[in-house]
Amino acid sequence: MAIHTKHPASAPPVAPPREKTRHHLLRGWCILVLFMALSGVAWVNAFGAEATAALTIVTAGVSLIVWVLVRPAYQWRRLPWYATGYVLWAALSIAWSAWPAVSAITWLLLAITTFQALFVGAMLTWKELVRAIASALKWVVSLSLLFELWVSIFIGGPILPRFVIPSEPADDPIVYWSRDNLFEGGRIQGIMGNANLLGPVALLAIIVFAIRLAAGAPRKVMLWIWIGVSVFLFVRASSATAYVAAAAVVLVLATVLLMRTARRPGERTKYYIAYAAIGLGSALALWLLRDRIFEALGRSSDLTGREAIWQAVIERASERPIVGWGFATPWIPSEPAFDGWIIDHGQTVMQAHNMWLDVYLQLGIVGVVLIAITFLAFIWRSWFFAVDRPRWDLRADRPYSPLSLLPTLIGAILLVQGLAESTPLLLWGWLFLVMLGAKIKQAPHIGVGPAEQSLAIERGEPTQRER
Questions:
Q1: Start-to-end C-alpha separation, the chain
Q2: Is 0.85 topped by the overall pTM?
Q3: Strand residues in 218-376 grouped as ranges (E)
Q4: Quick one: which of 36, 136, 214, 365 has the most CB atoms within 10 Å?
Q5: DSSP bridge pairs for 456
């Protein structure tokens, strides 16, 4: 007869504690919140702006109720104050806005996105957060592919928003939700209805699934399949901005891995110099060779008309350079000030196609300074979160976690995307910026060791000293 003692070497194995049903429901709700942000305008294309607005407000209300009921341990002194300052300045701009109704509506969207970012970051640990992001991305990736497949097989032609089948070809294909290009070889747009929105999300999916693989997540074969599907969508979206973002991600990843090999003080200096030289050299080469590069990518050297948009934005923004014309992210086409102001492909433009110019137009130089500090703080914290070993005591040999790579790689995507799009200011771009920035401040290391101790460390609770 086997005899067991309390000694760890002979004690019977014990199954890990099962998660409670309410925690499963909580994580499922966080996945839904992330999915809504990542899928972007898909909800508008499917159900209309009014229904999407109502759904967004309802989900924010549910998250608020959940926060009150769960009451997670949260250090309010460690809020992302720079991002909060930007949100408050946007709210103040309603007082002098040239379009106060638009400012109020779009600020409500900004406030809800900010709150949802804090909510998800507060409810989940780092491992749970990355797992939830992966789950939300699986929904976006799979639905995008299935949507394009459904259009090609069952519709057999382009489709307009709200599932309307056009009776005759549109004047410009930009109005289509899907152009039925899955088997035709053209760009596909996924559930977002925009290839320039699908490309960065597909790139994000590749990064998250690869990090999950490196972290030893189960079902590795399925993760490889998800990576393959994401790569397919990334290539077929054919977004020049996403391609440049991918190059930036590779550069940042290579630099972080080099930084992690440093063993002596000052050894990282040479890597920083090399990183700066490569980054500046690449930016200079991209600008000088932009004609050839964009021609190879099938784009015009003026970034598909963006230079004309930027010029118009600069001219109007220069009339109110300090405080701007009032918050409006995105520009609502029904507002007379935007309706017909800038036309591209026969459609009223809804953004400046440059994050910095958009902020300059809306919130002036003050807003540009606030958003610059917000991004600088996020990049700074995420960078050292990735390159420094997790350390909360005298032990300095804890292994790096692949999960710590996620914030700095997302930062690279947002910075590049912000040069040609304004999307980092809303939806998943702003949500991830606030969520990950706040998470790093709340839990500046990923615990390694006993599960209970790691969880306590991440939540800022007192722990027992390691033996």
A1: 33
A2: yes
A3: 343-344, 347-348
A4: 136
A5: none
CA–CA distance, 325 with 263 (Å, rounded to integer): 51
Q: What DSSP string describes 415-434?
A: HHHHHH-SGGGSHHHHHHHH
- Cα distances (angstroms) measured from residue 345 to each of 25, 186, 265, 421, 426: 44, 18, 55, 17, 23
From first to last of its 467 residues, the chain has per-residue pLDDT tens of 455 555 454 555 555 555 677 888 999 999 999 999 999 899 999 999 999 999 999 999 999 999 999 998 888 888 999 999 999 999 999 999 999 999 999 999 999 999 999 999 999 999 999 999 999 999 999 999 999 999 999 998 999 999 999 988 887 888 899 999 999 888 999 999 999 999 999 999 999 999 999 998 999 999 999 999 999 999 999 998 999 999 999 989 998 998 888 777 677 777 778 777 777 777 777 667 766 666 665 555 445 568 889 999 999 999 999 999 999 999 999 899 999 898 887 788 999 999 999 999 999 999 999 999 999 999 999 999 999 888 777 676 788 899 999 999 999 999 999 998 999 999 999 999 999 999 999 888 775 544 444 455 555 555 444 33
The rounded distance, in Å, linking the Cα atoms of 157 and 180 is: 5
DSSP 91: H
212 closest CA partner among 438, 12, 432, 402:
402
Angle between the N-to-C axes of helices 355-387 and 427-442, in degrees from 0 to 180, rounded to the nearest 10: 30
**Contact between residue 141 and residue 185 where contact means Cβ atoms under 8 Å apart:** no
Rg (CA), the chain: 23
CB 110 within 8 A of CB 340: no
Measured distance CA(372)–CA(351) in Å, rounded: 19
